[in-house]
Amino acid sequence: MQRDIDRAHYERLADKYDDNWAYSPEFIQWMTENLRRRLHLVPGSSRVLDVGSGTGLYALGLAKQASVVVCADLSAAMLEQLPADGRLIPLHAGAEELADGRVQLPHDGYDAILMKEVIHHVAHPPQVLAGLSLLLRPGGRILVAMLPSEIDYPLFGAALDLFRERQPAPEDIAAALDSAGLRTELTYDEFPLVFTLDRYTRMVRNRYMSLLASFDDTEIDAGISEIRRTHPGPQVRFPDRFAFVLGVKA
């Protein structure tokens, strides 16, 4: 089952997650500002539900402009890496359990719900998004931050093909939020990334993207050889482009 594969992947990755994803303080700040600006957090009063929070890489930044951030994740190992901050509340749960009301939440509603790079793990996005929208207070916002349908990552061909097969279209996510009765907006932003080739191939070997968990060690080795052939220089440069799908409750 893909959900179990993904969960096992993140359990294994937990202690390396921040090393893989924290490209630079500038990237973290850029992404955090993109999230905060779209969620319209009110300092000291907003309640936030971060669905798929992982290690809290962005939750801590959101907490600086919110009263509390509930960090929900299926991976207990990821939640164990949360920063020690009283504004962060760990919750061992996935998007489906939250949407179906199978998990007791610490609040009766939220001003903001974030799903950053989570929606591709969800089997039935329209159903889950409709359920999560019910957790919003009046005027609340749900933000789905996701990769677009096509990416310019310097991955090997088989990985890029698998990405295209699995990645939902941002337009479909916007339509799902619209069907849930929310006012929707789809925007894009990108950040330029630069890695040494050695570091990037190390990230690939660590399977820094969940889709890489679908490849065994032999396939990863072959993929890294392909990356080195197609990118013979000492560095790789590419834009990290994100789709931000926003839904606002009346």
β-strand percent reads 15-25%
Q: Which architecture does the CATH hierarchy give at level 2? A: 3-Layer(aba) Sandwich
Instruction: Kindly state the number of beta strands.
Output: 7
Helix and strand element order: HHHEHEHEHEHEHHEHHE
User: How many separate helices?
Assistant: 11
Secondary-structure-derived class: alpha/beta
How would you describe the shape? Answer: globular
Q: For the residues shown, what is the average pLDDT?
A: 91
Can you describe what's shown?
This protein is α/β, with parallel strands linked by helices and 250 residues long. It has one domain: 3-Layer(aba) Sandwich (Rossmann fold). It has 11 helices and 7 strands. It has helices at 2-13, 17-21, 25-39, 59-63, 76-79, 95-99, 125-133, 157-166, 170-179, 197-205, 217-230, and strands at 47-51, 68-73, 88-92, 110-116, 136-146, 183-196, 235-248. Strands 3-2-1-4-5-7-6 form a 7-stranded mixed beta sheet, with helices on both faces. Helix 7 (125-133) crosses helix 9 and helix 10 runs antiparallel to helix 11 (217-230). The longest helix is centred in the N-terminal third of the chain and has 15 residues, at 25-39. It starts with a helix and ends with a strand.
